[in-house]
Amino acid sequence: MLPKREFCRNFCFHLTTNSSVTYRLMAADKQLTPMMAQYRRIKGELPKDAILLFRLGDFYEMFFEDAQVAAPLLNVALTKRGVVPMCGIPFHAANNYISRLLKAGRKVAICEQLEEARPGQLVKRDVTQILSPGTHFDERMLAAEKNNFLAAVYGVGKSFGLALVDLTTGSFKCTELETEAALLAELERLRPAEIILPSEAARLHELLNSNFPILNGYEDWVFAPETALFTVRDHFKVASLDGFGLKNKGAATGAAGAVLHYLTQHLRRDVGHLTSLSCYQASDYLTLDIITLRHLEILEPLHRDAAKNATLYGALNRTVTPMGARRLRDWLSQPLADAKAIGCRQNAVQTWMENVSALEQFRAQLTQVRDLERTLGRLSAGTGNARDLAALRLALEQVPMLRSILAGLPTSGAGNGLLQEAEEISEPSLLGELGSQVVELPDLIDQIARAIADEPPLALKEGGLIRDGFDPALDELRAASRSGKDWIAKLQQDEIERTGISSLKVRFNSVFGYYIEVTASNLSKVPQHYIRKQTIANGERFITPELKEMEGKILGAEERSIKLEYELFLRVREVMLARLPEIQQTASALAQLDVLGSFAETARLYSYCRPQVGTENVVNIRDGRHPVLEQNLSEERFVSNDTQLDQQVQVALITGPNMAGKSTYIRQVALLVLLAHTGSFIPAAEARVDLVDRIFTRIGASDDLARGQSTFMVEMSETANILNNATAKSLIILDEIGRGTSTFDGLSLAWSIVEHLHNQVGAKTLFATHYHELTELAGRLPRIKNYNVAVREWNDQIVFLRKIIEGGTDKSYGIQVARLAGVPKAVIERAKEILHNLEESELTPEGNVRQQARHRAERDKLKKLAPPPQLDLFGG
Ligand SMILES: Nc1ncnc2c1ncn2[C@@H]1O[C@H](COP(=O)(O)OP(=O)(O)OP(=O)(O)O)[C@@H](O)[C@H]1O
Q1: How many Å lie between the centroid of ligand 1 and the Cα of residue 620?
Q2: What is the value of pTM for the model shown?
Q3: Which fold has domain 150-284?
Q4: What is the DSSP letter of 563?
Q5: Which atom of ligand 1 is nearest to the CA of 664?
Q6: Is 272 within 8 Å of 577 (Cβ atoms)?
Q7: Where does the record place the DNA mismatch repair proteins mutS family domain (predicted)?
Q8: ipTM beyond 0.95?
Q9: Fold held by 472-576
């Protein structure tokens, strides 16, 4: 017998072709074989860029261009039949291969056989799923703690509409962004797995192309607000979108409509579980631009090989469910801009910290809820199985206890005197509010408990899903099958007695069904009415008419009971779907409670404090620590530092040796300010962090060679962005501005940037620099203060104290650091010699003294100068 694949190939090509003129036959529709005509029809109805996996027996086959594209991606052989290129993948390992195609950014259409194959007849086939990178449910590609967003972007005038759908969780949201930079930052934050945009929107394509991998042009008319309005209204069955906050938001409506259209029409997906649409506004949140998101390493480390927890998210994440982890990422990358909302979260964290045993109990219980959002996503999108129903039940069973723990907490979390704004004391309790959104569903739990077996299998069509006693018809079928099996078991005993063959066995396999097996030495005793079916190495197999009759009964009953089980599963699923909005609301509330609990747990473990949050432009931190570094330092203990930015000190200039801790310190301040805006407590002894409107960072040197920008160009573009967009409410951290060019150019730029920030912008600024000359500025401008990172010199060596102290410094200790780094002794000694000469005078190319120290004279002149003009730095 041919292996199945060969059989299929011969079969299909027997129908398809028997000569090398296949391609011509394919091209003329009327001459196509029935199967190829079927293939053509199905392929013709699909999105052009989808690769069609066409089920043929135990394989999925790809033909023509699909095969040519897929074979190298899948690393399978590209073969030919006639002139038709083809390749195939085994059905049982298809998921692995499909993942590879999705990872490569392709869409995959899966065409199944809808009936048993019968030789000589065309099998019914149709597409059951079209998958794309932003719309699949493949666990191997999904990260539990990350959303898998499909995004749609639509530009109207200067605004951009952005809509996001995560099919795996049922999350659907949209917003409008006013600038390209804001759009890029939001996309960077959310990192969609796939983005659709109008095909003709050339500028948008250009803008997104270099930053985001999977962009798909989609029909322009679908984005038009009038069409989109209709699509969204139709999906939610509402007359107006005002209730979603979409009034007068053409760009957001366009994007939301397009994403729905793409899912339902292009990918033919069921989106019934997108039960709500939330429209959010950038102004509700602290603005973090793309550079800040990356450089502060909020969600992802800058360097791929960095430890996983080397991010703010990694250091803060103590959530106990994946949905909590996803929500935490959201909160950290989208800090709040409203003191009241921040106060509500702080109250919740504080309540937990004051009720630690309740917190522990709550978190232990919450663990059992697992990924309720994704369980719901799978069930409602039709990919879920009975195990998902069992998981849903387990999650819902935790609800009464979770609610009762919440109910036992004091209603107000405030009251330790740290709060600055008295009105926050009367805020409604966020814990109470979230608790009221967690819904108990005893009927549904009961229904699942009665219906679904304790440990159901993964497969839905092999039985074993439904409990005995749930459905009388199923019980009857099972009884029939069981009694048949008892009859067969008894038959073996009876036949042994009747024939005297003690080794006689009644067995079953999927090819022959039930049969009687007799070993070679006993064949002479086989009765006349046994019908020989097969000879095997050590004996023979027989059937009898009565055995076959009973087999028919058993198999019939089994087949029907499996079918019925599947129907019953679908019925229970329907019951669940009727409660979908309540369960989604419960999941969302539990995700938030998980984050609040995680904030409390981190605060408790690392002694965080509750920052006061006001509106007067003050940042005053006592004994602040870097949240990530403090958890990751193995050799040193983290040294805490203070920060004071207010009406008196607007710009803090931080000098100090290499390696002393300048960058760490300024990043730490930015992270603590950010963290305070999320409602989390922060690693400090005491803190007041007033609201800021944006956090800007200019850190580190990175080339953007892909876009043809040099290190210095990148540095200056980032600086320009800051100077053009910062306000008096912003926080800016600048690390070594000007380093990328010649000393004098760099110093001049740094000098005038600081002046501009001080005189024109008024933003709170931390400026770490190696230009000691800049410390002169503190004497000239009122709100600039010098700090340096203390070191102790000892026998020509330095000890880093990591303490930020007031005052400037004029030594870099670069040579000492070079020695610590292992630079050869001879080089170090020569460097010292050159340094000495430099300090005294200018050098010849050989490193010898040439003339008197002009440098020093210039500095002295500078010191004597009366208050600015600013360009006098190197004048004269
Ligand atoms: N407060 C601190 N407590 C303990 N260790 C610290 C502290 N601050 C910094 N460090 C350690 O010192 C190292 C160097 O710090 P950092 O990169 O901030 O120095 P830097 O002054 O910016 O150096 P450079 O000027 O060479 O860029 C950090 O990687 C960290 O391990």
Answers
A1: 21
A2: 0.85
A3: Nucleotidyltransferase; domain 5 (3.30.420)
A4: H
A5: 18
A6: yes
A7: 730-746
A8: yes
A9: MutS, DNA mismatch repair protein; Chain A, domain 3 (1.10.1420)
